[in-house]
Amino acid sequence: MGTEVLLEIKDLAVEFTAHQRKIPAVRGIDLTILPGQFHALVGESGAGKTVTSLSILRLLPSNVSSLRGSIKFNDHDLLQLSEDVMRNLRGREISMIFQEPAKYLNPSLKAGYQVMEGIRYHMGYSEKAARERVCELFEKVGLSDPELAMDRYPHEFSVGMKQRVMIAMAISCNPSLLIADEPTTSLDVGVQRQIIHLLLDLQRSSKMAILYITHDLGIVRYAADIISIMYAGKIIESAPKDVLFTTPLHPYTRLLLASIPSREKRGTRLQGIPGTIPNPEDIPPGCAFHTRCPLAQQKCKENEPPLVRIEAGHRCACFFPGKEFGSLP
Q: Which of 193, 208, 217, 250 is the most exposed place for a label (fewest CB within 10 A)?
């Protein structure tokens, strides 16, 4: 492949069964992450972002009826590994932080102990060495008085501080890949910025790759190296951040960008995207975005556009990439 690749997803498709119906949550996606890269996966709720991340960790719910494709991590296909091997990879080589930290912290255990557990399991540290490591981590993620923080219970932390505990837990074994699933959604804007800056600092200091999942393009504007846009189970555009923000090609990406508040748009009404993302149980034929797209033609209603390379590093799934709105009959 020429360039070293950390994670390579090829033709990943995930279906669930509910009420005796097959529900396609992810519909054949390709995604590549290089070592040390910050890759943002952006899309509305229901686009398939979280299902993609849970597929990487092999933590999908039990009602999965079909899982196809390959997910190669350091050249090993994660979908073919035994559960014992995956258990050792989770938390050690691949870690994850979630949207609501309170759900993933045990309310009856002290924060320090919860972080120590993973360190002792994966790294074989003694209790004393693990405690020292947790102290160091708590300081690194910005928890004041790390010694005191170790002996606090989750309810004694603010939501933002809980998320810092979760980040400390996720990076405790120096993973190669950190998956961050909407980690700032429940936080106020100021704390959101702090968490993003913290993740960036950790990424740069440890050369750790990050897959950052979000519905908010604005939040990754200054952090991401690569941005992939997901819609109705498909990646519809992917490009380096600067390219995506200056020359977006897919109508959905352009409408998303138009809806981001900025200084230049102050005093003007922000554009919204008409309609809603289709339910995975009822994805329309052709391009899934055609019901909301200002460029949609008959061709779009009948055929699904493939994700093709437009130029180096820039891929788009649209029959009319970059066309001006209103320029088609």
A: 193
Q: Which residues of 240-273 are buried (b: 16+ CB within 10 A; e: fewer)?
A: ebebbbeebbbbbbbbbbeeeeeeeeeeeeeeeb
Q: Domains of the chain by range and CATH?
A: 7-82+213-316 (3.40.50.300)
Strands 38-42 and 226-231: parallel
Largest Cα separation within the chain, whole Å, is 71
Residue 322: partners with Cβ closer than 8 Å, 6 or more residues away: 247, 249
| Overall residue count recorded for the chain in this entry | 329
Positions of the chain with pLDDT lower than 50, given as ranges: 1
* β-strand partners of 22: 17
- Alpha carbon distance 90, 304 (integer Å): 35
Cα–Cα separations (whole angstroms), residue 249 to 47, 218, 238, 310, 311: 19, 17, 10, 9, 11
Q: Give the tens place of pLDDT for each residue, 252-294.
A: 999 999 888 765 555 555 567 888 899 999 999 999 999 999 9
Q: What are phi and psi of 30, to 5 degrees?
A: -120, 135
Query: What gap in Å lies between CA 233 and CA 287, rounded to an integer?
Result: 11
Q: Quick one: CA dihedral 306, 310, 312, 313, positive or negative?
A: negative
Q: Are 250 and 229 in contact (CB under 8 A)?
A: yes
Q: Nearest 5°: CA angle at 195, between 189 and 200?
A: 125
> Would the pTM count as exceeding 0.70?
yes
